[in-house]
């Protein structure tokens, strides 16, 4: 069996159990809505920051030309 499939299935089962508990009025997580909102907002900011930092954001005309040249070099190497 694929390890990724097993992990995804376990996460899905946990999400379903959590949803059923919430629908019945039982809060399985000891967090307030405000704490969850802070976490989600913070995680989104961190992910967006890392993604933007990681990607090559060419802004100037010269940088865009250099990106095009690099892509051509990589294509010709194959």
TrEMBL record:
TM spans (from-to): 7-26, 38-54
Q: What is its main location?
A: membrane
- Pfam families annotated for this entry? Holin_SPP1
The UniProt entry, under InterPro entries, shows: Holin
Cite the entry's keywords alphabetically: Membrane, Transmembrane, Transmembrane helix
Q: Any idea where this protein resides?
A: Membrane
NCBIfam families (UniProt xref): holin_SPP1
- Would you tell me the protein name for this molecule? Phage holin
């Amino acid at each position: 069996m694929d390890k990724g499939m097993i992990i995804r299935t376990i996460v899905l089962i946990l999400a379903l159990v959590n949803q059923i508990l919430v629908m019945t009025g039982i809060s399985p997580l000891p967090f307030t809505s405000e704490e969850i909102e802070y976490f989600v907002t913070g995680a989104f900011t961190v992910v967006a920051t890392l993604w933007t930092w990681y990607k090559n954001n060419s802004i100037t005309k010269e940088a865009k030309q250099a990106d095009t040249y690099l892509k051509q070099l990589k294509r010709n190497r194959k």
